Task: inverse folding
């Protein structure tokens, strides 16, 4: 069994990003990221702080628009419109979840698709599903980068994705389908989850449920990608997979923490640099 070390790879990616950003700056382009953070969800605040400090580390300019929980949708849309027009901003990210009175659909659709570094705009979602070049969501794209770094080829593998969210499961499904895996996608209404997971050469799990995947649900020699981030009763960060029991059966497995998590932020950095390079070409 080999661990897929996302922590190490993300450090390497950030080092490479520093070089690319320095090169862009020499050409007069400082990549810029605008983040919109609504309300006071503690996890969202932690994620945004981590995104901000990674930007700073690699030399990306970032601005955080913090808004109160009772902000109007209109105000959020206005802020996005302003960022769409701002030539110093290459990437726009709205931290999710949003408060219930705000339409996530309208807010995400307001972002200029060329600045949509989270890949949540319907244009980018559609392009990704067509196999066209697009901004892909950072967590699943980070998983692809991690697999690529370990030279894991998905072509022809039987894959199972557990969780069908717009942020993780569905884009994960599209990315691995584009890489020619045979994809099975499971969700809350799946009748017999084990019958699906057990068949998989590679299993992706992003649900947010501790110990959802137990040893008996995994095929001998499988690759297991745990995209879950949960806090257990002892306050420890754990994934969706019963790591201790499942790991000995795997050819590869991602640890939590230190697997997929760090890849999300390094991918955001890569997407922001990609957006800044597109600015370069437009000039
Ligand atoms: N909330 C949970 N994950 C994400 C993410 O990748 N991007 C944004 N914007 N919000 C999230």
Result:
């Amino acid at each position: 069994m080999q661990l897929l070390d996302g922590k190490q790879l993300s450090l390497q990616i950030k080092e490479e990003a520093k070089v690319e950003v320095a090169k862009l700056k020499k050409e007069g382009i400082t990549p810029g990221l605008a983040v919109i953070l609504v309300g006071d969800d503690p996890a969202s605040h932690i994620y945004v702080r981590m995104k901000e400090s990674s930007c700073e580390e690699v030399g990306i300019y970032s601005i955080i628009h913090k808004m109160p929980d009772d902000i109007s949708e209109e105000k959020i849309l206005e802020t996005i419109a302003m960022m769409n027009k701002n030539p110093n901003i290459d990437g726009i990210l709205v931290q999710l979840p949003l408060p219930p009175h705000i339409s996530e659909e309208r807010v995400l659709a307001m972002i200029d698709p060329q600045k949509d570094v989270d890949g949540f705009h319907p244009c980018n979602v559609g392009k990704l599903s067509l196999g066209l070049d697009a901004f892909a969501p950072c967590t699943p794209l980070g998983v692809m980068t991690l697999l690529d770094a370990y030279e894991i080829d998905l072509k022809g593998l039987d894959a199972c994705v557990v969780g069908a969210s717009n942020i993780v499961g569905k884009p994960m499904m599209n990315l691995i389908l584009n890489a020619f895996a045979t994809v099975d996608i499971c969700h809350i209404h799946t009748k017999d989850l084990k019958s699906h997971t057990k068949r998989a050469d590679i299993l992706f799990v992003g649900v947010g449920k501790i110990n959802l995947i137990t040893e008996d649900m995994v095929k001998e020699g499988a690759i297991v990608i745990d995209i879950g981030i949960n806090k257990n009763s002892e306050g420890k960060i754990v994934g969706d997979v019963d790591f201790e029991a499942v790991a000995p059966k795997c050819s590869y497995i991602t640890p939590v923490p230190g697997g997929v998590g760090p890849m999300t932020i390094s991918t955001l950095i890569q997407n922001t640099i990609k957006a800044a390079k597109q600015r370069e070409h437009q000039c």
Remarks:
- The radius of gyration is 19 Å.
- The chain has ten helices and eleven strands.
- The chain has a mean pLDDT of 97.
- Residues 138-260 form a domain with the Rossmann fold fold (CATH 3.40.50.720).
